[in-house]
Amino acid sequence: MTERFTGSFTQQEPIPKDAIEAAVGVMRHGRLHRYNVAEGEAGETALLERDFAAFTGARYCLAVASGGYALGCALRAAGVAPGDTVLTNAFTLAPVPGAIAGVGATPVFVETTEDLTIDLAHLEAQIAASGAGVLMLSHMRGHICDMGRLMALCDGAGVTVIEDCAHTMGAAWAGVPSGRHGAMGCYSSQTYKHINSGEGGLIVTDDAELMARAVLLSGSYMLFDRHLAAPPPEAFEGLKAELPNISGRMDNLRAALLRPQLARLPDQAARWNRLYRAMEAGLGGTPGLRLIDRPEAEAFVGSSFQALLPGWPAERVEALLARCADRGVELKWFGAAQPAGFTSRYAHWDYAEPKPLPRTDRVLAGLIDMRLPLTFSQEDCAVIARIVREEVTRGQGLRHGASDGGADR
Ligand SMILES: *Cc1c(COP(=O)(O)O)cnc(C)c1O
């Protein structure tokens, strides 16, 4: 009998009870706006900022309306102006170049390695060619590059690094939390990320001026003294008239949903990694399928899984996707000619006039991707892995079980 998978790749866990109760508490008193607080009350948004600053070890934190808003706000705070160029990964999600375009700047894409991280040699060449002063570094799908080398390169060239940590909340490189290597770190609390408030974003930094600018930009109505993780009022003095109010605040309802989830994130990350390792164990050694190496220094959160089909022609990948879908396994493919759902790639972003990037094209042509929601069990992962393994083996033109090309990692 042909094995099928019947679970849902997009079903997240319910919101935990204590988070629901906290949110209901906010609705009961009605003070949803972050600056609408009773005498002596801090407000859930300010408390979330305090909690998240502590979680990442940052001095300052600002909660905003979405991950994409966080990226745009960080770019503006860093002084990116219309007409500037901003370096970013060619392999990322549409809101990243979108945030760059949103401030009137132009994304300059950097090649992707077979480990799905930014190509540092190409980054060096693109810094020289573009003269860009900012890199928006996207830790796409949770893969973190050698941050020591990246920061040395950028510091040496005077390039400010803003980290897009939409997939690395709770992750670290060499013991330093993701988002804490560059000047600013940006996170998302959108439903498909690591904590879920539907929409939401967070920005962290140790730089008082950058944070003062971000707070004013986010729409603080000069109420910045109600923040618990912002610099002191003096830091805002010279800036108040200089920065536009571009409203994108978080509200107390979402913050209330997030605080109990943040407290659980380390446990959730451990659960995600058990699913990831189960998938890795099930797929390891499949002929024709190359898994992604996870470096020692990288403490990742395995909320999604990627693998490469090196050298597979598009028709063969498409046929594989169709066979897996028939068996209930929804693989996403970054090599498709047209953007679909959440999956698009740099060549689809015409507004940025992308130049061809052959290494990225080669990698993405064979890149398959799936979410690992926490509603999956390790047994679910084993079932999915068996299905993908059988279908890749079939696509590879080998009979299932005929060979164990265990070295192909
Ligand atoms: C989701 C995502 C964002 C933006 O987050 P939103 O909260 O959806 O705006 C940014 N970068 C990456 C890589 C993402 O996946």
TrEMBL record:
Q: Where are the transmembrane segments?
A: none
What protein name does the entry list? dTDP-4-amino-4,6-dideoxygalactose transaminase
Q: Does the keyword Transcription regulation apply?
A: no
Q: Does the keyword Transmembrane helix apply?
A: no
Q: Which InterPro entries match?
A: DegT/StrS_aminotransferase, PyrdxlP-dep_Trfase, PyrdxlP-dep_Trfase_major, PyrdxlP-dep_Trfase_small
Q: Which residues form a coiled coil?
A: none
Top-level taxon: Bacteria
What range does the record give for the signal peptide? none
Identify the keywords attached in UniProt to this record, alphabetized: Pyridoxal phosphate
Entry similarity comment: Belongs to the DegT/DnrJ/EryC1 family.
Organism from which the protein derives: Rhodovulum iodosum
